[in-house]
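All the exercises in this workshop are built on plain-text protein records. A record pairs a protein's sequence with a compact description of its fold. The structure tokens are whole numbers drawn from a learned vocabulary of backbone shapes. Once this layout is familiar, the rest of the handout is easier to follow. An example says more than a description, so a record of this kind follows.
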Amino acid sequence: MVARLACIVAVFVSSIALAKPVTIAVAANFKQTLELLAEDFKSQHTEFNYRISSASTGILYNQISHGAPFDLFFSADDIRPKQLVEEGKARQQMAYAYGQLVFWAPSFLNKNGDKVTDSSLWDNWEQMYAYANPTLAPYGLAAEQLAKQKNNDAKIVLANNVSQVFQFISTGNVAAGFVARSIQTDFNGSYWLVPQDLHKGVAQHVALLSDESQAIEFYNYLLSENAQTIITENGYLLPKI
């Protein structure tokens, strides 16, 4: 009897250890926040295993459209998750956050030697700057809308995603650029938090792509108080659900 019980326990432990991970595709801007969410969920559901793949929204959508076996897709827009539902490649989708756009110039100081944290930073900017490729990244699309309104001759560097824009600026390859507020909650140097009404917004939706039970549970967890606290603490606004 004892031996049989030990065998059952061993099989149970083994099944947990070998549980199939939930595969999650996430837009680059949300990767760090998703990792916090996944670890919080795992603290409540110890059997939860996951694997995260991060890239621009457009690249991930193309991978999913061509059969990439993801269980969840955290997009940085609302268009592609809705398309996946319409195409029969997603079970359902919902909003999980609204992203905030920041124009960041860490080394810039005004004539008085002070940093600038209002719209004058962008209004008077004439040097080279960067933003994410608007065909791949919704944050880049929002930045492009502002760039077209400004209509100056400053050179623009296109990155694959907002994380790469952050890298360009941090390493000094460009002096400024448009990044997601979620990249870091406390920006050093000069920056401007772009008001939501100056662009079409970055409504971020998640698509449930499979019927894996752990994926469904994690999808539902996003509506919990814990999850929404983590999301807002990392620079996002909550959608009206």
Remarks:
- The longest strand covers residues 92-99.
- The beta strands are 22-27, 50-55, 72-74, 92-99, 101-105, 129-132, 156-159, 177-180, 190-193, 202-208.
